[in-house]
Amino acid sequence: MSHLPHLIAKLENHAEWVKRLVLVGQKSWHTPLQKGGWSPAEVIHHFHRWDDFARNYRFIPFLAGRATFTAGAHAKFNEQSEREVRDGLGKEAIIVQCLKSRYALIETVEKLREEAWEQTLTIGDHDLSIHTYLQGVIEHDRHHREQIEQFFSLEQQGKLPMVNITERCGEELPMNLLLLADPEQAMIERYLSGGLGFLAEVEGTPVGVIVLKDKGQGLFEVNIAVAEQEQGKGYGKLLLLHGIHVALKRGADRIEIGTGNSSIGQLALYQRCGFSITAVDKDFFTKHYREPIVEQGIRCEHMIRLAQDLK
Ligand code: COA
Question: How far is CA 80 from its chain centroid?
Fold first, then answer.
């Protein structure tokens, strides 16, 4: 029987859990789990180095026919993780990095043939199967997840709101929310057609939407909105990370988002979630929108395009 679907599901569950930690408050995110120990920020950040290490120094060489490895080569990357968190790397960037490394690992693990699973690899003095090695990665995930969950049940204020995100077709997405992101209904209809929609709900009430559009050649474009009375609670960040997660699951190479020059909060949010400015579409809003748009006293004229590589 194939072990693979079961193990991949566990690797993916971990990504799903990490993504939801974006709702954790800043104070809890940086509080040590125990005296003198790591905070959730440091624990989550070190996952991506473990995944990159497993992929680059174990699975990829193993797939190329190597079976003998030196032990202990990973000690220094725990220190690197601590340093980057101390230097101010944000929660969203840490989580995005963790998701990217996890899906790169999954893509590599999926290349293993069934007969390779029980093949022996030697790490230092230890002989183990690649299956046992991967179970070690999953055990490492589980250990830290329990540690963090225990911390949050002790830290009452750290408890996360239950946000349910489900895939929906275009007609099931509330138009009033979509209009917040784009006042032109014709523009909305264009990106809804063939788009992949998701609705976020809290206790059955819609709080936000995200739509991903497959533009071909591995590129996904994103549109996002959160209900006005629900803004500033972290749902936008969670939905954006959800969009990145869906694009990774679908093997996308790159993800894009656009916003107006006057949307200062959105520009901050997108860059915190790993997007970089790639282009300015001069006069996009003055050319394509009938009504003038003004935000915080700034006339919205140009489209700022942002993107990030997923591989
Ligand atoms: N300076 C710095 N950061 C800012 C900021 C500012 N002036 N304004 C917002 N931000 C960033 C911060 O990263 C903030 O996170 P923090 O609370 O940790 O500081 C984050 O924005 C807000 O995150 P969150 O609460 O998750 O966002 P949200 O739930 O309010 O959703 C939008 C964000 C953009 C989806 C929401 O405001 C919205 O729907 N707006 C109208 C529609 C829209 O503009 N859609 C996008 C079209 S391009």
Answer: 21
Q: What is the pLDDT of residue 156?
A: 62
Instruction: List residues bridging with 110 in a β-sheet.
Output: none
- How far, in Å, CA of 24 to CA of 160, rounded? 6
- Average confidence (pLDDT) over 109-117: 87
CA distances in angstroms from 72 to 68, 78, 125, 134, 135, listed in the order given:
13, 12, 11, 17, 18
CA dihedral 237, 238, 242, 245 (to 10 degrees): 80
Q: Residues lining ligand 1, CB < 6 A?
A: 180-181, 224-226, 231-237, 259, 263-266, 268-269, 272
Q: Is the CB of residue 52 less than 8 Å from the CB of residue 185? A: no
Please report the atom of ligand 1 found closest to the CA of residue 226: 39
Name the residue of 198, 269, 306 whose CB sits within 8 Å of the most ligand 1 atoms, as the mutation to test its pocket: 269
pTM recorded for the entire structure: 0.94
Under 8 Å between Cβ of 28 and 51? no
Which of the pair, 81 or 11, is modelled with greater confidence?
A: 11
Separation between Cα atoms, residue 266 and residue 253, nearest integer Å:
23
Compute the distance from residue 47 Cα to the ligand 1 centre, in Å.
27
DSSP state letter for 64: T
Ligand 1: residue whose CA is nearest its atom 8: 265
